[in-house]
C-alpha cells in the first residue's frame, strides 16, 4: 500500500480534504445545506436582473463569493497564493490570505495590486512580531485583519497524523519566515500539530482582542464564531465583523454545520456588525441560502484549492465563475434582482415541509 512518504500527493490531498476525528461534521454539511429549501417565485423579471455586486466593510466586490484563507498553496502550484490572488483579481472578488501562506503578504499584494485583500491572523507570543505584521499588512494594502478564534490548538486531524504531515524542503511560510522557524516536519504524527504547539500563541484569549485593537487601526473580523453567545461577545469586544465558520470541519468534530448556526449568530450580533460565512459552500444555491440567513459574504476554502491544483490561476477563476453563475441563476429563479433582495423569505426550512408541520397547520 502507498504510504504518504512514498506518495506526497496523498499527504497533500489528505491535508486539504480531511476533517477532524470521525469527520461527522464534514460529512453532514451537505445534508445541512440540502435540508434548507428555496422558495421558487413565478415570473420574476429576468431582464431586470442587476447582478451580484455587493460590499464588504464598505468596499465594492463584484460577487459575494470570496476566497477563504487556506494554508500552503505551493503544495499544489509553484505560484502558490500569488496565483490565487490573481484569480480573485480576475473575478473582482476578495481574497483573505492565510498567515501560513507560502508566498509572503507583500508578494501576494504585488501579484494583484488593485485587488481587495484582507489578512487572516494567527498570533506570535511576541507583541513586536504581531505589531510588525499588522504594519506590513497595512502598508501592503490589506483592508482588514481576520483573527481566527477557533484554533487554540489544532483539531485532531487523523489523516495528517497518519501521514506525518510535513512541508517539503524549500517551501516556507513566506510572511512569518523572517521571525521564526517555519519548518514543519512530522516525526511522531502531524508536523503541523507539533508546529502549532511550539510556535503559535495558543494562550491568546478575548482580552488580547482588546490589546490588538491598540496595535492597529485596521478593522478586526473574528473568524470561527459558532454560537450566539460568542457572536454577542465579539460585538462587546469591539469586533468590526464576525465570520461564522467551523474551520471547514477541521477543528472540533460533531459540531453542527456552520449553516445550522448562522441564524443564531446573526441574532447574537443584533444587526450591529456584518456577518460573513463559510463551510461547505459548493453550489450557488448554498450561497443564496447563506445570504438569505443573514451573511453578507461567503467564503470558499477547499473548492479554490481543487481549482488551483487542477489549473492554477485559471482553475480558481473557473471555480469562482461557475459558483457566481449558479448564484445568478438561483437569484433570478427566486426573484432577486440584486444581492440586497436575498432575504429570509427566500428559504424554507425542511421542518416546514414535514408532514407533521403541515398537519398541525391544517
Ligand atoms: C487546507 C485548508 C487550510 C486551511 N488553512 C486555514 C488557515 O490557515 N487559517 C484559517 O483561519 N483557516 C484555514 N482554513 C479554514 C478555511 O479558512 C475555511 O474556514 C474552510 O475551509 C471553509 O470550508 P470549506 O473548505 O468547506 O469551504 C483552512 C482550510 C483548509 C481546507
From TrEMBL:
Residues 1-352 form the FMN hydroxy acid dehydrogenase domain. GO terms for cellular component: cytoplasm. Glyoxylate binds at residues 15, 122, 157, 247, 250. FMN binds at residues 69-71, 98, 120, 148, 223, 245, 278-282, 301-302. InterPro entries: Aldolase_TIM, Alpha-hydoxy_acid_DH_FMN, FMN-dep_DH, FMN_HAD, FMN_hydac_DH_AS. Pfam families: FMN_dh (PF01070). Keywords: Flavoprotein, FMN, Oxidoreductase. Its cofactor is FMN. The active site is at 247 (proton acceptor). One of its GO terms (molecular function) is oxidoreductase activity. It comes from the Eukaryota. PANTHER family: 2-HYDROXYACID OXIDASE 1, S -2-HYDROXY-ACID OXIDASE-RELATED. Belongs to the FMN-dependent alpha-hydroxy acid dehydrogenase family. This is FMN hydroxy acid dehydrogenase domain-containing protein. It comes from Euplotes crassus.
Amino acid at each position: 500500500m502507498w504510504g504518504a512518504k512514498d506518495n506526497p500527493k496523498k499527504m497533500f490531498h489528505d491535508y486539504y480534504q480531511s476533517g477532524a476525528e470521525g469527520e461527522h461534521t464534514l460529512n453532514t454539511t451537505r445534508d445541512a445545506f440540502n435540508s434548507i429549501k428555496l422558495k421558487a417565485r413565478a415570473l420574476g423579471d429576468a431582464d431586470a436582473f442587476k447582478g451580484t455586486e455587493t460590499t464588504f466593510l464598505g468596499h465594492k466586490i463584484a460577487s459575494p463569493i470570496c476566497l477563504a484563507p487556506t494554508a500552503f498553496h505551493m503544495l499544489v502550484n509553484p505560484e502558490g497564493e500569488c496565483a490565487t490572488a490573481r484569480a480573485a483579481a480576475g473575478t473582482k472578488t476578495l481574497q483573505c490570505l492565510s498567515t501560513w501562506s507560502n508566498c509572503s503578504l507583500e508578494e501576494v499584494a504585488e501579484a494583484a495590486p488593485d485587488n481587495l485583500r484582507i489578512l487572516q491572523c494567527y498570533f506570535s507570543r511576541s507583541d513586536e512580531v504581531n505589531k510588525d505584521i499588522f504594519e506590513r499588512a497595512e502598508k501592503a494594502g490589506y483592508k482588514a485583519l481576520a483573527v481566527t478564534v477557533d484554533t487554540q490548538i489544532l483539531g485532531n486531524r487523523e489523516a495528517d497524523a497518519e501521514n506525518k504531515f510535513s512541508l517539503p524542503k524549500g517551501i516556507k511560510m513566506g510572511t512569518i519566515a523572517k521571525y521564526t522557524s517555519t519548518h514543519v516536519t512530522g516525526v511522531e504524527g502531524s508536523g503541523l500539530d507539533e508546529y502549532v504547539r511550539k510556535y503559535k500563541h495558543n494562550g491568546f484569549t478575548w482580552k488580547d482582542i482588546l490589546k490588538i485593537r491598540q496595535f492597529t487601526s485596521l478593522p478586526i473580523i473574528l473568524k470561527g464564531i459558532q454560537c450566539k453567545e460568542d457572536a454577542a461577545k465579539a460585538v462587546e469586544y469591539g469586533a468590526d465583523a464576525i465570520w461564522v465558520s467551523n474551520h471547514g470541519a477541521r477543528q472540533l468534530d460533531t459540531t453542527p454545520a456552520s449553516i445550522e448556526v448562522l441564524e443564531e449568530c446573526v441574532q447574537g450580533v443584533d444587526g450591529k456588525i456584518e456577518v460573513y460565512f463559510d463551510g461547505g459552500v459548493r453550489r450557488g444555491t448554498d450561497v443564496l441560502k447563506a445570504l438569505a440567513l443573514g451573511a453578507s459574504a461567503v467564503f470558499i476554502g477547499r473548492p479554490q484549492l481543487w481549482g488551483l491544483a487542477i489549473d492554477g490561476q485559471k482553475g480558481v477563476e473557473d471555480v469562482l465563475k461557475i459558483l457566481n453563475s449558479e448564484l445568478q441563476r438561483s437569484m433570478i429563479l427566486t426573484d432577486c434582482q440584486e444581492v440586497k433582495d436575498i432575504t429570509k423569505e427566500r428559504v424554507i426550512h425542511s421542518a416546514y415541509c414535514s408532514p407533521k408541520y403541515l398537519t398541525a397547520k391544517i
